[in-house]
From TrEMBL:
Gene3D superfamilies: NagB/RpiA/CoA transferase-like (3.40.50.10420). This is 5-formyltetrahydrofolate cyclo-ligase. InterPro entries: FTHF_cligase (IPR002698), FTHF_cligase-like_sf (IPR024185), NagB/RpiA_transferase-like (IPR037171). Signal peptide: none annotated. GO terms for biological process: folic acid-containing compound biosynthetic process; tetrahydrofolate interconversion. Its EC number is 6.3.3.2. It comes from Rodentibacter rarus. It comes from the Bacteria. Belongs to the 5-formyltetrahydrofolate cyclo-ligase family. Substrate binds at residue 58. One of its GO terms (molecular function) is 5-formyltetrahydrofolate cyclo-ligase activity.
Length: 188
């Protein structure tokens, strides 16, 4: 099996395991990572925070979003770039932001260029992932969206943090040279 086939097999396996988690397991995982994320945000005094809308059994970011709004943090969500294929923009997300479904069926803020945050103004970026390993390597859905976003993140001064269920950990991911490891992964 070549490396691409290995990566596809890991994606298939873990996505299946993840969608089979019970509602209770999902709820407990969400509570656990929410608390860990809040602690990390407080320690690092992050103000501009990017998250994502969970789907496909990903840990729910809903409780984290609600709490961060109460703390007056500035929240951002990824939006598919209208021209640059496989690139993301990060748009301000408020309780009354108009939302639309993108072509993956994921809800995102309606595009408004005035609401775009340049990545170098971001303090923390929570990323979804399919699989991860002890080294902080991440495997996503296969679009390379986050690998492009995370390029040279050290120079942009934000911290990329993965959120994952325990069942998403593998011993060692077969990585490619473009994969960008995360600063940390919070596991629930
Ligand atoms: N910085 C980059 N510049 C150009 N192409 C890239 C870059 N990063 C990744 N790619 C391309 O994107 C494709 C998908 O990458 P990969 O399989 O690592 O996705 P992924 O990490 O699972 O997805 P995502 O980053 O969206 O979660 C690969 O073909 C790779 O060549
Ligand atoms: Mg990758």
């Amino acid at each position: 099996m070549n490396i691409q086939q290995q990566r596809q097999q890991i994606r298939r396996q873990i996505r299946k395991t993840r969608t089979n988690l019970t509602a209770l397991q999902q709820q407990q995982a969400a509570e656990s990572v929410t608390q860990q994320a809040l602690d990390l945000i407080e320690q690092s005094q992050a103000k501009n925070i990017a998250l994502y809308f969970s789907f496909d059994g990903e840990i729910s970011t809903q409780p984290l979003i609600e709490t961060l709004w109460q703390q007056n943090k500035n929240l951002y969500l990824p939006v598919l770039h209208p021209f640059a294929k496989h690139h993301l923009l990060f748009l301000r997300y408020l309780p009354d932001t108009p939302m639309v479904q993108n072509h993956f069926g994921i809800w995102e803020p309606k595009l408004n260029v005035q609401h775009v945050l340049p990545l170098n103004e971001l303090d923390m970026l929570f990323t979804p992932l399919v699989a991860f390993d002890k080294q902080g390597n991440r495997l996503g859905m296969g679009g390379g969206f986050y690998d492009r976003t995370l390029q040279n993140w050290q120079q942009k001064s934000f911290l990329p943090i993965g959120l994952a269920h325990t069942c998403q950990q593998v011993e060692a991911l077969p990585i490619e040279h473009w994969d960008v490891p995360l600063f940390d992964i919070l596991v629930g």
